Amino acid sequence: MKIVFTCNRIGAGGAERVICNFANQMSKDEIDVRLICLDVFENFYYPLEPRVKIIELDRDYKNRKKFLDRKSAGFRNFKRLIEKLKIEAPDLVISFYTRQNSYSILACRILNIPIVAAERDHFFFI
């Protein structure tokens, strides 16, 4: 079985810890695990098993300052996500974060791949 996690990046937050814990345990259980990130930090805060493959979509994402550059990068990254998912051909995609959930749900619908989208935002109503 192959599982792909998608997220914006792996930093020091709670969702990142959950992703790393899931990926590490699944890897130990002989599940083929991939982690597709929008961009990757030089050093991850949480350790990952060596068998967890990390795929970066856009190394220059943080350096885009102009509005149109950022918006066109979103379309390019969506296309890259579809290409990576075609190559990896996972049995399941697990997605975290609002923006990445949007990209991943649409890409998985196009490719007919099952997906679980985890949302961790707090919504406050007054």
Automatic annotation (TrEMBL):
Keywords: Glycosyltransferase, Transferase. Its EC number is 2.4.-.-. GO terms for molecular function: glycosyltransferase activity. It comes from the Bacteria. The keyword Cell membrane does not apply. Pfam families: Glyco_transf_4. The keyword DNA repair does not apply. Residues 13-117 form the Glycosyltransferase subfamily 4-like N-terminal domain. This is Glycosyltransferase. It comes from Cohnella rhizosphaerae.
